[in-house]
C-alpha cells in the first residue's frame, strides 16, 4: 500500500469512513446504531476518530514487525 494522507469523514448517510485524502475509495467503515449514537450523546464522531486512529497505529506496528523479521539474518545448517 502506498503512503498517503488519510482522512476520517462522516458521510451524509451517517457512516464514518477512513479513506485516502486524494481518493474517494473507502478503506474502513464505522456505522453506529441509533442506540449507540444515543448512548454516546453525540460524541460518536470523536469515538470513531479514536477507534480508527488506534487501528491505523496497530496496522503500522504489524507492518513494522513484519518488515523487521523479513530482514532478520538466518543461519542455515
Description:
- The protein is α+β, with helices and mostly antiparallel strands.
- The protein has two helices and three strands, in the order E-E-E-H-H.
- A three-stranded antiparallel sheet has the order 1-2-3, covered by helices on one side.
- Strand 1 and strand 2 form a beta hairpin.
- The protein is globular.
- The model has no long low-confidence stretch (mean pLDDT 85).
Helices and strands, with pairings:
Elements: E1 6-10, E2 16-20, E3 26-30, H1 34-39, H2 44-70
Antiparallel strand pairs: 1-2, 2-3
Précis, in short:
By secondary structure, the chain is α+β, with helices and mostly antiparallel strands. The protein has 2 helices and 3 strands, in the order βββαα.
Annotation field: number of helices: 2
Arithmetic mean of pLDDT:
85
**Looking across the biggest beta sheet, what order are the strands in?**
1-2-3
* Tally of DSSP β-strands: 3
Query: What portion of residues belong to β-strands?
Result: 15-25%
Report the span from N to C terminus: 35 Å
Can you summarize the main beta sheet? Answer: 3 strands, antiparallel
Number of domains: 1
The best one-word shape is: globular
Amino acid at each position: 500500500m502506498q503512503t498517503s494522507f488519510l482522512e476520517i469523514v462522516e458521510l451524509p448517510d451517517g457512516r464514518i469512513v477512513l479513506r485516502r485524502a486524494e481518493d474517494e475509495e473507502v478503506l474502513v467503515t464505522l456505522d453506529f446504531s441509533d442506540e449507540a449514537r444515543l448512548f454516546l450523546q453525540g460524541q460518536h464522531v470523536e469515538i470513531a476518530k479514536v477507534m480508527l486512529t488506534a487501528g491505523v497505529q496497530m496496522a503500522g506496528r504489524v507492518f513494522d514487525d513484519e518488515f523487521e523479521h523479513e530482514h532478520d539474518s538466518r543461519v542455515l545448517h
